[in-house]
Automatic annotation (TrEMBL):
Compositionally biased tracts (Polar residues): 436-463
TM region(s), chain numbering: 50-82, 102-118, 177-197, 343-360, 366-390
Family the entry assigns: Belongs to the TAPT1 family.
Protein name: Transmembrane anterior posterior transformation 1
Gene name tied to this protein: tapt1
Localization, UniProt: Membrane
GO terms (BP aspect): cartilage development; ossification
Record-linked PANTHER family: TRANSMEMBRANE ANTERIOR POSTERIOR TRANSFORMATION PROTEIN 1 HOMOLOG
Natural source organism: Anolis carolinensis
Membrane topology: Multi-pass membrane protein
Keyword Transmembrane helix: yes
Disordered: annotated span: 406-485
Length: 502
């Protein structure tokens, strides 16, 4: 340090101009910053790979309602009718899967005829007469209501399926199926009306002269960034939010299809009007993609999550698809998608069938022949999509080293009773083979023992200043007192509204 006599303005300016520093003295800090930048650059690619895979999963479950479900219902009804010809040798008149298929088909048909009493045109003009601010508030309320309906709807359907197929000692106990059935019909009908109001509001936004409502509705997506980015997220929370984003994006695609169908009908199917709608459709899709990328990029940055976590999410979704094809599967794949993502295809299918039948008039033998060809095309698309998805899913499961988890038989037991000795022996043998992170998970009865994905250090992450190690140790001590974290394979849509899993 220079003495007081050597101090001068010239020396100070010279020191400021020639002063140097060495970044390698804090190499770890700058390396971490560089990795964060690389992670943000990888997020769009990894996120979109997950989104595309998830959207095709939703498409597969959605096409199942229109293609294979009617055929399965026909086969179930044919078996029920021809059962006396084969004699009553079997204890069950129908298999549980066939009973569920019949209920799905009956609910779909009943809700379709109930939707005929809802006037779409009157609803359109009623919504169009409202002010822009009212419509903006209505659209936000509809989004919240849709999440609430999706969160509770699959529970209603699962309750119906289990009540109808569970083993019963007395025939009188089967009376409980009737109230569950009416609850399911009421839910699907109300949810279909809710989605119709959403589609109508979006249609009004497309047809407004100054496009102000459409701009406001698109800006609402950016408000989602404010509500998500500055929160603490763990891997399980981010997985749940990713599933919700997949479901939301696919639902928006179907809503845009409904809007285009209604507008094309009003303009007598003039193809020139489709190009008028095309820029607005692209703008809505682009805003959704941009919001998802920005949201996930900053969430992973603030919470120190690597981009490789999306590969784990994709492997978990692929595991659901592959496990549903096993002989010991305990659920249908469409129901598995509903539980995982909160995407329930029945209400959306009811609305789309209602819109298509009211927009497209079928007259003459040639028109019916075109309908048959279109249906065959849908079946071909469904089969092709299922084959490609199954192949990709097997590839993702193999890359994640999850093949052994597919062959774990589910333990059997009755609710409220402990498992017997054979199950306990099986459990102990599995605990010896599985890692400690798996054996710490509680074993649910009537469900398969699903091992956990390999955990990494990214399970505990917080954005902390450099050198601040006290917060990390405090968080580690708090995590010891928490209950065991949920496995990615066990996460469903129970907390889809808040996207939080405690």
């Amino acid at each position: 340090m220079p003495s007081g006599k050597d101090l001068s303005l010239f020396r100070f300016i010279n020191a400021e101009l020639t002063r140097g520093y060495f970044l390698e003295h804090n190499e770890a800090k700058y390396t971490e910053r560089r990795e964060r930048v690389y992670t943000c650059m990888r997020i769009p690619r990894e996120l979109e790979k997950l989104m595309i895979f998830g959207i095709f999963l939703c498409l597969d479950a959605f096409l199942y309602v229109f293609t294979l479900l009617p055929l399965r219902v026909f086969l179930a009804v044919f078996r029920f009718i021809t059962l006396p010809c084969y004699g009553l040798r079997e204890r069950r008149l129908l298999q549980p899967a066939q009973v569920c298929d019949i209920f799905k088909g009956v609910i779909l048909v009943i809700c379709y005829f109930m939707m005929h009493y809802v006037d779409y045109s009157m609803m359109y003009h009623l919504i169009r007469g409202q002010s822009v601010i009212k419509l903006y508030i209505i659209y936000n309320m509809l989004e919240v209501a849709d999440r609430l309906f999706s969160s509770f709807g699959q529970d209603i359907l699962d309750a119906l399926y289990w009540t109808a197929t569970e083993p019963k000692e007395r025939k009188r106990a089967h009376i409980g199926v009737i109230p569950h059935f009416f609850m399911a019909v009421l839910y699907v009908f109300l949810h279909a009306i809710l989605i119709m109001v959403q589609a109508t509001t979006l249609n009004v936004a497309f047809n407004s002269h100054n496009k102000s409502l459409l701009t406001i509705m698109m800006s609402n997506n950016f408000v989602e960034i404010k509500g998500s980015v500055f929160k603490k997220f763990e891997k399980n929370n981010l997985f749940q939010m990713s599933n919700s984003d997949i479901k939301e994006r696919f639902t928006n695609y179907v809503l845009l299809l409904i809007v285009c169908l209604r507008n094309m009908e009003q303009f007598s199917w003039n193809p020139d009007h489709l190009w008028v709608l095309f820029p607005d459709v692209c703008m809505v899709i682009a805003s959704e993609i941009a919001v998802d990328i920005v949201k996930h990029a900053f969430i992973t940055k603030f919470n120190d999550i690597t981009a490789d976590v999306y590969s784990e999410y994709r492997a978990s979704l692929a595991f659901d698809l592959v496990s549903s094809r096993q002989k010991n599967a305990y659920t249908d794949y469409s129901d598995s998608v509903s539980r995982r993502m909160g995407f329930i295809p029945l209400p959306l299918a009811v609305l789309l069938i209602r819109v298509v039948t009211s927009s497209v008039k079928v007259q003459g033998v040639l028109a019916y022949a075109c309908v048959v060809l279109f249906y065959c095309g849908l079946i071909s698309l469904k089969v092709l999509n299922s084959i490609v998805l199954l192949g990709k899913s097997c590839q993702y499961v193999k890359e994640a080293n999850m093949e052994e988890k597919l062959f774990n038989p589910p333990p059997t037991g009755t609710p409220g009773k402990p498992l017997g000795k054979p199950q306990s022996k099986y459990k102990s043998s599995q605990e010896e083979k599985l890692p400690s992170s798996v054996t710490s998970q509680p074993v649910h009865q009537n469900e398969s023992v699903v091992p956990q994905l390999v955990t990494s250090n990214s399970d505990q992450f917080l954005t902390t200043p450099d050198g601040d190690e006290k917060d990390i140790t405090q968080d580690n001590s708090e995590s010891k007192h928490r209950s065991t974290k949920k496995d990615l394979l066990e996460i469903d849509r129970f907390t889809i509204c808040g996207n939080r899993i405690d």
